[in-house]
């Protein structure tokens, strides 16, 4: 990219004077960032054109990854690393009196996702580009990403995140590839020459304009693209008559209505309000993406080569949000390309594949039939026909068929069930960790498995170890490279070569020193952002992720309350100092989660202001969790809290990011923790609690009684009482909803059931931590075994076993 730092400086300064029309010294830091990012982006865009040409000459099968969420994180440093130019640019900037990390912090971190699912999509883009897979991401360009979390008086408040105010240097608006999307209207059947056709009239037209973000693979050889679609009104959408009557807001009413489609990202835990808009978003992304795929295909292969479509195109749907890909691709093949139903259906099912991300029943998407019919009349007709044919194909001679049909049909009870649509319309359905896939096969989607068991497969999630280790933890990366060479960067499996260093005391000391340095870095961020002073020599016990009942931040909180109570009774209790670090957003409408955030703050106040205990324990909540903050936190953790109720966390990916950075997991046998346990080995992880089977059995038998546990454990009874007895201030400050969820409504997530074992295991981990040699060896074993969790491995499995590319 640059032949050396002098070359870089020359090009960069030339770019500055050309675009900023003022000398470098007069530019703000943000402007300096912007010029640098634009410069790298335009090189990436050029390489994208080359990649496309190469892939198309090789007739490579193309993968389209549809996702309503992409949590990209900042790109500048990442792309410099991928282009092999980081050191050069860093040195050049230093000569100019600038610092790459400071410049990089000027970049907005686009919050175009809620959490794990969106970050997974971004990790996949990274790995697909690295593996030279011809892949395009399809997403939405929300003007406001997920809300910014602010804590006021110990409570979460939400502020809009206008991440685009200063522009986004990594995107290229591609007006010439805009598509028209239709909403509403009527569909009429007409007969002509014995053929039925469907005419759609009186619809509203919305323009879908793509903004393309280049995705640079490590090594800089492959540059793919993420297409973010924005909804815009067609130009004529202004009511001039109304305008000239002075009715300005009426004149632009329809424009606003259309622009609202990609105005904001919906939080995952949705309320009924705004449902219609959410469905519009889903169809908008799907229809824009499918139309662009079809056009590109026809351009490339001609307008009649449909049979070969599944050999040349793979469409992957990340969760059910893009499930309308199934009827929309059908619609275009039938109505626009004039294929027969059976041929079209064969193409659709061979092309589309689907990943399920959750078994939480409230997260399985359903839409009222009436809404679907009114908003997408032709698409709904196709869904109806898919459902009709599915029912017809059902073998009614087998016992239990009625039950299976009722749980697997698409239309049921006045609703369109999106997961069922996705499964029926796909050739592959995968879960995201071994235990999750088992639950899908044996429980949630059992009815399908009976017919189509070969469709179901597992693809354990992964994360980009280049972002979450190489970029986020440069000191550790350097130590690793000094020991085993740099091969691990492109082949994470090589991290296993670190295992022999478990007996090298100099190496282990170095590992400890690096962890300490990362803890200091986080401690100074905490001091700056919240004023709380923490001891980097204390054990950092970290839980960062969305706040959710099933993730059980509550269990962690109760553990800290228990320590507080013990320290108050026995201030001389032997306890290595601990810092408990939380971070995460609660969905705006999710009261229980917001109360959990408030409880963490109430507890932090209590603990941190009490000199009797704050020597031993501190509690910190970091505001506004996101990819950038994560990159600072994961490398600084000693203990990784992965304590969801077994059976509820599909995979988790935070657990993997911690592991790459040498944190030791304290967790349940849930999601990918099961595989972490298997790889790291029993000695290098702390497992506790009910198993998924035990949780399910409680469910069948109905004999769990949370109050019995409080009766048996007085310490726990004290804690649940403290939620409401004035311990946290007056009655208005009490945590009744949390108390009641546990005591009156019988503790749906088994917090009380797992408390005792959790606590015991926590103390076991604390003891291990005090044996520094032993702990460092555990930490190293985790790093060495983390390679399996690179998303490089995951996307290669998708490529070979689902998409059939390579
Ligand atoms: C990795 C990641 C998550 C997922 O965390 P889990 O612990 O798996 O729930 C959520 N949010 C962000 C910003 C992440 O980077």
Automatic annotation (TrEMBL):
<dbReference type="Pfam" id="PF00343">
    <property type="entry name" value="Phosphorylase"/>
</dbReference>
<keyword id="KW-0119">Carbohydrate metabolism</keyword>
<keyword id="KW-0663">Pyridoxal phosphate</keyword>
<comment type="function">
    <text>Allosteric enzyme that catalyzes the rate-limiting step in glycogen catabolism, the phosphorolytic cleavage of glycogen to produce glucose-1-phosphate, and plays a central role in maintaining cellular and organismal glucose homeostasis.</text>
</comment>
<dbReference type="InterPro" id="IPR011833">
    <property type="entry name" value="Glycg_phsphrylas"/>
</dbReference>
<dbReference type="InterPro" id="IPR000811">
    <property type="entry name" value="Glyco_trans_35"/>
</dbReference>
<comment type="similarity">
    <text>Belongs to the glycogen phosphorylase family.</text>
</comment>
<protein>
    <recommendedName>
        <fullName>Alpha-1,4 glucan phosphorylase</fullName>
        <ecNumber>2.4.1.1</ecNumber>
    </recommendedName>
</protein>
<keyword id="KW-0328">Glycosyltransferase</keyword>
<keyword id="KW-0808">Transferase</keyword>
